[in-house]
Amino acid sequence: MPRREAMTQTPSLWPPSFKATIFDFDGTISNTAHLWHEVDVAFLGAHGIDFDESYGRALNVLGFAAGARYTIERYGLSESVEEVCEAWTRMGRALYETRATLRPGVEAYLHALRAQGIPIGLATTNAPSVLDAIRHVDVDGLFDARVHGAEVTWGKDHPDIYLECARRLDAAPKDCIVFEDIIQGVLSAHAVGMLTCGVRSSDPIQQVGELQSVSDLWIDSWEDITPHPFASPPAH
């Protein structure tokens, strides 16, 4: 899908040209893409299977249950979906507890958006208990609404998770921007009329050129956004 040819105004990240925001978590605003790579390599290695990029890209789109079903079918594993999800959650929680951090510049931008009265949503295929285990990031304090993959029927190759997040923010899809680091998410958000911003992540399997070509806006680094006037983080 090509980038939109015509819009009522030139979109911008600051000052905001949207009324509500929806953020992906892993890779997009957090330095956690490598943690899931570690989980994937370790999980497959325990079964005598080598990790490959096509598998990693497939899991990026799917939620835990769908990803587990895909893994079982692809590799002929004997475990149940529940057992695979339990293993991933246990491994993810252990890594996220002390190693998950936000990318530089993210928190300042989120606080600036909130100071402008713009609601902030999270749309992630990650499990709630994994994000809740993080010590160094107040996930609930950053977002006005959280939607996890297990709460909707389809993965990010469908727009369900973004539409549900918009609903919880009480925002029309056309008034939302979605920040994503995967192509399928950007295309799904486009399909329901949402503005999109592709984000370069540290994931070595990210398809940067293709993602950039289908996104309305693009971020190489969150530190490139300089809100003015600068909004200080709220007091705790």
TrEMBL record:
Transmembrane segments: none annotated. It holds the Pfam family Hydrolase. It comes from the Bacteria. Keywords: Hydrolase. GO terms for molecular function: phosphatase activity. Gene3D superfamilies: HAD superfamily/HAD-like, Putative phosphatase, domain 2. NCBIfam families: HAD-SF-IA-v3. This is HAD hydrolase, family IA, variant 3. It comes from Olsenella profusa F0195.
